[in-house]
Each structure stands twice: as C-alpha cells, then as structure tokens.
Amino acid sequence: MIPRHLMIAMAILLAAALSLSLYAWHVRKSVTTTPTAVIDTRPLAPPVTGPTERVILFVAHDEDGTLRGLSAQIPMPSGRQQRSEELLRALLSIYLDRSSTHVLGSGADIRSVYLVDPGSAVIDVNSAFADTHRSGVLVEQLTVASMIHTVTANTPGIQKVKILVDGKERETLAGHADLSSYYDVSAVNQLAVQLQPGQ
Amino acid sequence: MRWTNVPREIPRPPLLARASRIRRLCGFFLVAIVSTLLLSAAPPEKHLSVYSVAANYSLPLVQHDGRDYVGLLELLEPLGRVTAKTDGSKWRLRYNNVEGEFQSGKTRVRIHDRDADLGGKFVLDNKRGLVPLGSLSSLLPRFLGGPVTLHEAPGRLFIGNVGTHFTASLAGDNPPRLILHFTAPVNPIIATDQGVLRMTFSREPLVSPASPTLTFGSKVISSATFTENNGSAVLTVNASVPIIASFGNEGKTIVVTPTSNPAQSTTPTSPGTAETPTAQTPAPAAPPPVPLPARRRYFAIVDASHGGDDYGETLSAALLEKDVTVALAHSLRQELESRGISTLVLRDSDANLSVDDRAVYTNADHAAIYIALHATSSGRGVRVYTALLPFGEDDRGPFRSWTTAQHASLPLSQTTATAIAGELQKRQVPVRALSAALRPLNNVTGPAIAVEVSPQSSDLAQLTAPDYQQLVTGAVATAIAAAKDQLGSAP
Fold first, then answer.
1. Whether domain B300-391+400-488 has CATH 3.40.630.40
2. Which residue of A159, B43, B190, B456 has the lowest C-beta tally within 10 Å?
C-alpha cells in the first residue's frame, strides 16, 4: 500500500506540472500574437559633434522633377572628406523620411566618400541604396544629380565624380542612370540648372 | 449412285501451274513493299534536347505506360560527376554532392534528405533509372541547385539562362530583306519551298519571341512563325516569292531575301504541287561573312530599351517597361514610315541586347537618328533626353573615345530633342528636354535621343493605350520628318 503522504505529494506535483504546462501554452500564444517591432535597417553612424555650419543641400522633388536648394545647419567636421560624407548623410536623412519628396529605400546609406587629388571624388554607397532604388530615367538622374551637385557645390575643386556601389563598379543605378563612367561636374552643373523649377 | 464430297486432285496443265507461282511471288513482293512502306511511315524516335552552359546534347525518350521517360543518369552525366548504384528495387544516384534514392514503381523519391514527387512511377529498366519527362522541372533543380526550364511537349530542356533570343525586322522596300539577329551564333538546317523558308535549329537553344507569329506588313515577306517540335525549334518564313537565306556577323545574323531568279530556289518544285517534298539544304559550316554596311541603310533606328532579363521598371504586377517600349517602338516605326522615313526597330522581341550592341549596330548603319524609348510610372507626360557626356576621354586622331562618341553630334541631338519637345507641346502633352547619363546615348556617333513616356494621369493603363502611344510617337515622327534634311546631311 502506498503511504498517504506520498499520494498527496504525487497529486501536488501533477497539479503543478499541469498548471505550468497551461501557463507555458498561454505565454507561447501571447508571444506569437504580439506584433514584432519594425526593424530599422539603417546603419548606425557615430554622431558628429562640433560647430554647426550652414550648407546648401540640393534636394530632388519627384512631383515636378526638379532639384531645389535647401539651406541647412548641420554639424560639420574639419576634414574635406568627412565634410562630404556628412553632407551626403544629411541629404540621405531627408530622402529616408517617408514623407520625403524623393523617397529612397530603407537601409540606403553612404559608405564613404573619397576625395582623390587632383579633382576626383568617389562616392561609395551601400548595396541597399542601389537595390532598393526606384527604376526610371528621371528618378535615377535626380538622385545622382542631387548627390553630386550637393557635394561639389559645397566642396570646391572637384571636377569629376564616380559612384560605386558597395565598393564595386556597377553598370547602372537601377537600370538607367549610368554608373560605369566618371561624371563630369561641369555637365552635372548644367543638368542641375535644367532641373531648376521653372526651367 | 452415291455422291461423295471427297476432294479430288485434279491435274493442272503446266502453264496454269506456272501462272499460279508467279501470282504467289507477286503477292509476296507486294506484302514486302507494303510492310516497308508502313515501317518507313512510323513516327520518328522522340528525343529530348538539353541545352546548358556545359554542353548541348540530345537523349532518346522511352515510352512507358503511354508516357515519355528519360534516363536520369544519362541526362546528368555531361553536367557533372555522377554515379548510380542498384540495390534490389532501389536505385541510388549521386550527382556531385547530392544524393537521390529512387524505388522502382514508386512516385515518391528522396533527394538530399527531402521527399519529392515524380508525378509518375519510377522505372528501373535493366539497372537503368528512368523518370517521367514531366518530373524534370521539379527534380533537376534539386540536383543542380539552379533553375531549369522544360518545354515538355516539344522535348526541350534549358538548364540555367542559356536561351538564344532573336529579333526580326524588315528592311528596304524593293526588294525587302528580313534581318534576323541572334544573340549567339546559329547554324540551322535550311529547307526552302515556293515562298516558304524553314530553318530548323536542333543544336541551338533558340527560344520563342514574345509572340510566336511575327508579321511584317509586307506583301513580299509577310510573316515568320516560331514552333518547337521533337527537340528542335523551327522558324518558318512565309513569302509570296521564292526566298533564300544568307549568313553574316559570324553566324549571328541571317538575312532572308527574295531570289532574283526563281530558278535559284533550292527546290525544283513545279508551281501548284503542294505535296512536293522540300529539299533539305544544310547551311554551310562556316557561313560567309556579310560585309558591314558602308553606307546608311536606315534613316532612323528605333530602340525598344531593355528586354530579356532586363525588365526595366516594373510598372505594375502585369506590366513591364520592356514590353511597353516594344509597343511604342512599333508605333513609332509606323509613324515614321508613313512619313517616308526608313526605320529599323532594333529590338522587336523579348531579346537580351546589350547597350554596347545597340550602339555598335547604330554606328555601323550610320543612321541619321537613333531614338531610344523608355516608359515610366513616375512623373507626367514625356521627357526627351540627350546625352550627359561623362568626364572626357579625348579622341585619338581618327579614333573616337567610346564613352564620348556622341560629342560631335550632341548639338544636333539637342536641336532634334528641342524640336520634338516643341511638337509635343503643340499637342498639349507635358514635356521637358533634359540631359541624362543614359547609355548608349553617349556611345552613338550620330544624333541620338531618348524618349521617356509616362502617363498623363495616374492611370498606368494609358501607357499601353494605342491612342496615347500614337499621340506621342506621331509628335516624335513629325519633328524628325521636319528635321529630315538637317539630320540627313549629318556626317
């Protein structure tokens, strides 16, 4: 015969196991129904400190296919290369806003800007920048002109600009805008004039 | 008297006996001839043509339970390291590092520790593993790790992106020439009959254009039809006169032209005898090269941008830019030709054509104007582009830099773009003339523009509406016709 105290202990243990199973089932159900937070895939960059400076960003507007100057006060480092990177990051922060006039895909970022004397600049964007970019002659041209004109208008002495994607040469941005050659800054300046409102 | 039915041997005269032997002999020969004819009329052996980067080859198909089967070991052998082992009713196949286990009479198989369905029973025939032909499209990607395209009924299997595409366009009026441009060299077997030229591509992975029937709007060379049958692709050109084919561009171009003398037709058929068998004329192994044109053959070259793997912009779930540009190109050709401007559409089907090839063809033709067509969902109306030249690479003597080949013609390109914009404005179409870094505009030596069409409202269906397309292409054609003298005098 089983002693009474053992039977009571067994009953308590069984009840505990049953209630823990029910609790685990309840927790699992609530986890699956809880919406997962939207993951921001944008890479983190260390915040730039130091004195702010007024710069002109040339922002693309899809609704009328124009490029408009926007005055902005942003912290600017002292090095030319870092300044160019900050200019483009400031421009991209505008484009990554969903209410932007020229939305870029989530995760688009500038990897680096290299200034190579005499007069060459290389803008290296990440693969998300190109992979998520909308396709179309004008929409791609606006992105390219906006970036090049913003850098060259604020950084004197640049004559030609090359755009790389993830450190590699790419044929086009999203099927149209040519990335295989160096952009002639004087030609891009003329394009920027063509893209002014009212032209 | 009693009658009996016992047969009696009646002696025959010697002459009658000989006649009977001759009749029997004739009967025997008749049976032999009929049997031979019946056997010769039996359907040809079915086979599967396989096209891959590694090799193109053909395998016989085996009939089993009324279905086509193919030997899996033989199929995979030319593609990689493959071994097979029979163990009773089980058959184990190893391709590179992928192992598959099959069992005779079963439809389920195990490949790389995952189950798959053959859609029919696996057959083990004398240690030879046979799988249903239809199962290859699901079976092979498991072994090969990449996509395959199976054309089951005609027995053609494409492993990876190996298809050879082609474009067809009609040039000239008297006599018209049908120019077939292939993305890879081809060497078909050619058969001709009165007004019909049949090219059979057995070894080439030729794939169908967007529409299997191409019409050219000419009474002389009216149409071409693409069909597939028993491991081959057949391109049939229909004409009202005898036609011949000649090769060029190292086998990448076939030009079909009417014969100047009907006697040149390779088949000595008499008119009206439709049943006359066609003569099989194998194409020469090394086709004679056709010299590149030294002078202008077309005034305008219209380029339907993108194509093949390059979709351009995905305008909607069912609408791709590459398809809209072909429709726009056809519309523009019609508008230009109605104004007396000889026009070539550079991409007439869903073919892969690199931007370099587009520029090379345009430069070789010395066309007076190159017009690239694009379509987009963004913006409203039309944009006319000229080249935004990249940072200069200087010309070296008579040699022009490839990236800035457009340099000398850019002013005339800009004048033409402005004229087109003006013509579109007259028709109340919103328009802008801009520069764009858009290849191959900078690689074309003559005047070159690109036209990007977007709908006038938010309705994307307008891009495919014939009346809107005609509104735009009519304006472009009118402006080019007005500038014809200026463009025609350009070097």
1. yes
2. B43
